[in-house]
Structure formats: C-alpha cells, structure tokens
Amino acid sequence: STVVVFAESMDEDSLDDSMTHVVAHEFFHIVTPLSLHSEDIHYFDYNNPTFSKHLWMYEGVTEYFATLFQVNQGLDETADFYKKIMEKINYSKQYDDAMSFTIMSENVLRDPYKDQYINVYQKGALIGMCIDILMRSESNGQRGILSLMKELTNKYGTNKPFEDDKIIDEIVAMTYPSLGTFLNDHVIGDIPIKYNEFFEKVGLELGETKVETNYIVMNGGPIVSGDQATGTIFFTELVLENSFWKEQGVQPNDVIKSIDGEDMIMANANSILQKVFNWKAGQEVEVKLDRNGEEIVIKTTTTKNYTQGIGIVEKAEATEAQKSIRAAWLRG
C-alpha cells in the first residue's frame, strides 16, 4: 500500500484567520526592527553585509506579539492561544533545538544555519513568550515583553541603533537577573528550553489531554492510505483515535467508496480529501464505505473532532497568584 498525500487548501474562515495573523505580524514590525534595531540593520552594507545576532527579537518577538495580540484583544479564545503555542512547540522540534539562536542569526545565510531560519517563527516566538512570562512573574504582573520593547525604543528608536553585542546586557540591566540566566542559557547558549518551567509560573502545564484535530489529518499525517493494486483508499488504524469517525463506527481498513456523492478513486483522492480537510463542525456529510463487501452508509452532521495528545492545560491546583499572573500575561 501507499500513503495518500494531499495538499492543504484554505477555506474562507481559514483564510480570514491567516490574514489576521499575517497583518498582525507585519504591523508589529513597527516595534522591531523599524523602531528598534542594531547597527547591522541601520547601516546595512549591501556589498559586504553583516547580520545581527537578534533574529529572536526581530522575527520571534514580532511573531509572538501577533499571536498574543489575538487572545489579548478577544479575537481568539484562551484555548485557541494555547493551541497555537503548542503547535509552535511541536514545530520547533523539527529544527535543531540545541543551537544557539544568536550564532544561527549571525550566520543565517550559511550552512548549517540557513536551514534553521524558519525556526525564528517557532522557537523565536517561544523565546518571546518565556521572556514575557518571566517579566510578568518578576513584576507581579506589572511588566511584560511589550513594555520592555517600549523602554528600549524610548532609549534608542528609529534613528539610533543599538550595539549588537551589548543589547542583551542592557536588557538584563533594565529588567531582572533571571532574564540574564534565560538569555545566556537558551538564546546565546544552546540549552533546550523546558517550557513547563515557564508554564508553571502561570499555573499551566504540558499534559495529556483531549486536543482538537482534523477529520482527515492527525498529528501532521493522514489517517487514510491507498492501495495502488486495487486503486482504493482506506482508513488506517489511526481512525480509532479520531473521535468523530470512532463515534460513527468506522473501522480500520474500511474502504472509502464515496464522500458527499463523489466516488473516491485514486485519481481524484487528493481533491476529495482536501474538501474533507476543510470540513467544519455542523456540516451535513454523507460517506459510503465498503467493509468486507458490505456497504456502510454514514449520513450525519459533523461535530468537533478530538484525539488524545499533549497540550497546554490549566493546573487544577494553580494558586491565586499564578492565576493572577496568567491573567496579566494574557489580558494585561
């Protein structure tokens, strides 16, 4: 058999969400690097370019602001924010988690660093989150990374760049020794971040939980496969871990004959599965299966779909102080 691979397509709601995030990200570039940047950027030499060590700030903090902004302003529910942060943790693990971010940034056009660039939007954003939580914790919720960026912008600004090698010492001097430990260990240094240590400060943890998932893709891979010899598409064992299909009684090796009136064959599988990928809860669907020669018809309304996985969860025993810092972090 062969795994069926199909491209993701975007429905209108997904496109709206994506556009909101992109616009927010680009808007927050007003903070950095437009208003706060190093000499490498301010005096950029196109003939003999040098690169700043601080992509964690320029792209990572900007990406973090774009994500936090949406929960802070009520565009996202808290659970949506946790989901996005968890996705960044998972995606960041696809890159070298034991690589100095400052060394990678300074050498971003060279091997082996250039292949790690996309991690500035994943782990870079998580670095911003950890700084934010540290500052909220140290200040009893009164200061965060946005206030730090404002203070740095007031000191420097559009026409006054900072010195690349001195900015981290200045950040520590303006904030708390704990930021120095964090930045030296996880940004200058190459020690992987233990995110639970930071979530603990706001009464959260990484734990086994029910996580929302897709109707055809779970944990980055499809729950169907294909048999080239027979030209059929069938559900794999993973279907039993998918709440929607499990509730419908679907079994591993059930062959998909049609979906919403379209006959499923190898030639059109990608097109049909793209539509399933975009299903939303509350949608009327009809699926016909072949189970050892018996036709099974599923005619139902889609519900929210879950699987078991690791997610960010609120600790039942969280203290009032932790909850207060969490509220300042997310809504302050």
List keywords for this structure.
332 residues; 10 strands; elongated; two-stranded antiparallel sheet; alpha+beta
Question: Would you kindly provide a written description of the structure presented here, covering whatever features stand out?
Answer:
Strand 2 (217-218) and strand 3 (221-222) form a beta hairpin. The chain contains 14 helices and ten strands. It has helices at residues 12-28, 30-34, 39-42, 55-72, 78-92, 101-106, 123-138, 145-155, 167-174, 177-188, 195-199, 243-247, 269-277, 320-331; strands at 204-212, 217-218, 221-222, 224-227, 232-235, 255-259, 262-263, 284-291, 294-301, 306-314. The longest helix is centred in the N-terminal third of the chain and has 18 residues, at 55-72. It is an alpha+beta fold and 332 residues long. Helix 4 crosses helix 7. The strands form four sheets. The protein has a four-stranded antiparallel beta sheet, with no helix packed on it. Strands 1-10 form a two-stranded antiparallel ribbon. The chain has a two-stranded antiparallel ribbon with strand order 2-3.
